[in-house]
Amino acid sequence: MNAGELLSLCKRRGFIWPSFEIYGGVAGMYDFGPLGSALKDNIVAVWRDVYKRGEGFVEIDSPTVNPEAVFRASGHMDEFSDYVVHCKECREPFRADHLVSDLHANPDTLDAAALKGLMVEHSVCCPDCQCELGSVEEFNLMFKTSIGPGSNRAGYLRPETAQGIFVNFPHLYRYNREKLPLGVIQHGRGYRNEISPRQGMIRLREFNMMEVELFVDPDDKSWPRFPAVAEETLRLVPEDGAERELSLTQALEGGVIANEVLAYFIWLTKTLLERMGVDGGRLRFRQHLKDEMAHYAMDCWDAEVLLSYGWTEVVGIADRGCWDLSQHAAWSNEEMSHFKRYDEPREVERVALKAKYRELGPLFKGEAKEVARLIEERGPEDVSGGVLKVEKDGAELEIPETLFETVTVREKLAGERVMPHVIEPSHGLDRIFYTVLEHAYRREDDYTVLALRPEMAPIKAGVFPLMARDGLEEKAKEVFALLTAEGIEAFYDESGSIGKRYARMDEVGTPWCVTVDYETLEEERGLKGTVTVRDRDSSEQRRVAISDLPVTLKSLLKGADFAKI
Amino acid sequence: MNAGELLSLCKRRGFIWPSFEIYGGVAGMYDFGPLGSALKDNIVAVWRDVYKRGEGFVEIDSPTVNPEAVFRASGHMDEFSDYVVHCKECREPFRADHLVSDLHANPDTLDAAALKGLMVEHSVCCPDCQCELGSVEEFNLMFKTSIGPGSNRAGYLRPETAQGIFVNFPHLYRYNREKLPLGVIQHGRGYRNEISPRQGMIRLREFNMMEVELFVDPDDKSWPRFPAVAEETLRLVPEDGAERELSLTQALEGGVIANEVLAYFIWLTKTLLERMGVDGGRLRFRQHLKDEMAHYAMDCWDAEVLLSYGWTEVVGIADRGCWDLSQHAAWSNEEMSHFKRYDEPREVERVALKAKYRELGPLFKGEAKEVARLIEERGPEDVSGGVLKVEKDGAELEIPETLFETVTVREKLAGERVMPHVIEPSHGLDRIFYTVLEHAYRREDDYTVLALRPEMAPIKAGVFPLMARDGLEEKAKEVFALLTAEGIEAFYDESGSIGKRYARMDEVGTPWCVTVDYETLEEERGLKGTVTVRDRDSSEQRRVAISDLPVTLKSLLKGADFAKI
Q: Residue B105's pLDDT is what?
């Protein structure tokens, strides 16, 4: 298959539409139509079910427009950029690294000068009009705006939902009664002002993310549910590039995955994706190479799926260490650490400075107490050349060592402050959406079936009268109303032959079709009408009493075997 | 009560947090915390249940960043603005109309010169530092950004979700098999770059909307479900200002509400809000005054709720006529109309131009057919001074009337193209969210209860061990796991006295609390353990078998009487 075929189906049947088509379109943006919007919601629902209900994590929802301070701390102001080059003639912009992708093994590691050098050397010109290219410039990929009138306060559209969780850490930590672990999820829009987006839904300017930030004790990366899945296996491509199938235990013992909690969430990602309908045979986990990984990350794995575009990242699962919270703590001066209470108070010895009050009194009079406090806040390591420098009211005092002494104190500590570490499974919703469709896509001759898992299907049941006459259509509408009232997404259709109607439902992934026929009307006189239920995947049909239909469909949705209904 | 008291509860308990507090905050933005995010989702779920499941409307999801063309057509480029004035000294910006609100009855109808005149006349100065104010300037309230590198393509954050529906009308119309009525819903972020936001969640820079666009035949504003609700009553404040309680029939017959479909959706809005927990006694519908209503609107009503801020709009329900589609059709040159098929083809007489082929042949040779076509495309009204001007290959030909004649033709028409009208119920989600909280807020002495409707409550059941010992806590955790597995949002708490735990749940609106006590353990030996269930609103308690608990809570959620469980 090719992506174009599937995208054309998606457009025709109302899954996704390229945005703003009536105005010539905007590259890198899609609308979710009626069926796509429902499929997207079903993906979010599964993710929530796994993390919120299953793991007990909490969910928040924060703004998409953020002030600059957030991205100074997160590093996006400095790091979130690509190199752009414009054609001097047609003014079309291109990603510089894409233009030299055949000329260098890792073009995204090159800087502006190296990229330009390579282009000049190989006479690279505009791919559209073959004219000369201009200079290579760095382009920050955040959409910029300003908050309030006057352009004095810069704002940016968030490149990820994660920062909304980090900046709220103090609130979330209190909400969790100052305990770890603390798991927080957020889904919503992310933005990346791509230079020249291609590849359908894979590289978007406005996209949807589902992010999970798990804050853990840095000294304890075990996970209570790990033992239950320790022998499950994963298809791994570690940084040495040699793909292998390992159990979680093997991966941990061999030092392939950094720690237990990370291993658990890699496994959870696998089950999550498979439940959504990603084909397990086209799913692997690839470890980031050292030069690919953010400098602060302790380990990072991408869930990659095989698509017509090639192997594509859909989820990243990283141990980000204390980077995010440390950065925000440093830039905001807010407390972001966790007070880790010891099981029993610990007695510790500490070398400290002790002010000589008798000497200080005559020298500083009413201020002596304050000066003593300033001395005792410091430690022996701050004394240099027999002098301790302290700041008081903006001025620097030089305190000679005749005014204090070095003593050993014994203290009882109830605990210590530690900076939590962050485990982050970050999901690209649009890419998962596209994968669910591509992995469900079956085409034989001119017949197309989307074999979506029933939980994912936008429509659970098509409801048809065999023909639109003789009261069949009234009865079918009653059945449709019954299912709808029971919260089962149904679609009523009386147009065209019954075969065409089945085909239309198969093409959008509807698992079951319900048909009202003459037998139904016949039986109805005896008050026990039945309808046929057709199963998409087996094409089998069964007769089911109308009154049992909601219960039957609900049990099928929960995984009951069609052959046994 | 005052809003501050409630907002403080909301912040303390994790409903909402002022955004970016660690960086000094950004006015007009809020984060939804764990409880707020759940409440918000519950509001969206009810709205969807009413419109998608109940009315059969379809849902879409479109981008928040839009190209300029969209807002040229919608009028937002020209109209979506306020007047701003800056203090010359402290540079603080203010809304000009707010500064003169005591000096004029309708300050928002004044232009820049009138506003400045009024300020000078009354020596209005900066409310913050009492210094002189600068000039009054128009400020467009859309957040502006640019799409792609180079700032050549302007983009704006959408001020409403509605435009995403209008620009997709051709797709949606085909999805609906080119039939009317067609109902489409969308929820998501909207943005308004307020000059100086105040009033908590009422006036936000980034907010959440739930919009409904119903496209109807302009000649048929009846509604099939109307008769069933015709005698229901509404509290109306028509444009004459005289509040009265009228049935829908009375409102229509008296010409108070413009048409049946609009009346139906006003009534539906009432039931929707009441189901969410808005107090019917603090809800009214106010008609827009002529000078308040958009020039194209045919009728417009605001659902207003009484809050501590005064009467506040939470939903607007308007008959927008053909404005939106006509505008986009004109600016995009795309077909946005509906082909309305007649029940039977209609025979009509039309006066037309008919080319004289015999005269054209010798004159135009091989082009004669084309010229004839160009003539017959036009009508008698295009003939002026005995000459018909037509454009051919970029040149204008003047065709003398000797080359054509005026004839009467009879045609059979299958139907006609009409521009659909739009009925729009547009919901301010954040305002509804705040209203649901304020109308549920009860405080007696120091005891606070949020009497949220169970369907709205973020947590449905608190689960406690009577004390955290003797195995009570293990059993309570089992009960918690049982409810969670059944999809009932539960919260486990063992900290503090049982009274404190009840109080904490009452304060966040949890309708029921389940307590495991010694009787539970006693009975468990006989395998039929019961727990106490306490009802928030009556404070009554009942014992329920653990095995029945999920079913009991689900039936309570559906409205069963606690006294009868």
A: 87
Chain A segment 186-205 residues within 8 A of B by beta carbon are 189, 191, 193-196, 205
Q: What is the mean pLDDT of residues B130-151?
A: 92
In this structure, what CATH number is given to the domain that contains residue A148?
Answer: 3.30.930.10
Residue type (1 letter), A353: L
How many other C-beta atoms lie within 10 A of the C-beta of residue B333?
8
Joined together, the tokens standing for residue A473 give: 């259509």
Phi/psi region, residue A150 (left: phi>0; alpha: psi -120 to 50; beta: rest), is: left
Q: Does B23 contact A67 at a Cβ distance shorter than 8 Å?
A: yes
Calpha distance A246→A265 (Å, rounded): 15
Query: Distances from the Cα of B114 to the Cαs of A308, B80, B96, B195, B257, in angstroms?
Result: 63, 19, 10, 19, 35
Is A58 inside any structural domain? Answer: yes
Distance of CA B147 to the CA centre of its chain: 27
Tell whether A122 and A43 lie within a shared domain. Answer: no
Determine, yes or no, domain membership for A333. Answer: no
A552 lies in which domain range? 459-564
- Judgement on whether residues A203 and A305 belong to the same structural domain of the protein: yes
**Are the beta carbons of A62 and B195 separated by less than 8 Å?**
no
Residues of chain B found within 8 Å of residue A67, distances taken between Cβ atoms: 20, 23, 26
Same domain? For B132 and B172 the reply is no
Q: Which two tokens stand for residue B477?
A: 């955790």
Number of domains making up chain A: 4
Positions of chain A with pLDDT under 70: 151, 525-527
Q: Do A61 and B36 touch (CB under 8 A)?
A: yes
User: Which residues, in sequence order, are CB contacts of B351 under 8 Å at separation 6+?
Assistant: B379, B380, B406, B407, B408, B409
State whether B271 and B294 are in the same domain: yes
What's the complex ipTM?
0.92
The answer, for A157 touching chain B at a CB cutoff of 8 Å, is: yes
Mutate to test the interface with A, among B12, B15, B23, B430 (most CBs of A within 10 A): B23
Residue A328 falls within a domain, yes or no? no
Handedness of CA B450, B454, B458, B460 (dihedral sign): positive
Contacts of B24 in chain A (CB under 8 A): 69
Q: What is d(CA A550, CA A460) in angstroms, rounded to the nearest whole number?
A: 11
Q: Are residues A181 and A156 in the same domain?
A: yes
B328 part of contact set with chain A, CB < 8 Å: yes
Are residue A124 and residue A108 in the same domain, yes or no? yes
pLDDT digits 0-9 by tens, A396-425:
889 998 999 999 999 899 999 999 999 999
What residues in A contact B61, CB-CB < 8 Å? Answer: 31-32, 36-37, 40
Query: Does residue A116 form part of some domain?
Result: yes
Chain B residues inside the 8 Å CB shell of A61: 31-32, 36-37, 40
Sheet holding A395-400, edge to edge: A383-384, A387-392, A395-400
| Residue A475 shares a structural domain with residue A525 | yes
Q: Model confidence over B234-255: pLDDT tens digits?
A: 999 999 999 999 999 999 999 9
Average pLDDT value for residue range B197-225: 95
| In a shared domain, residues B180 and B279 | yes
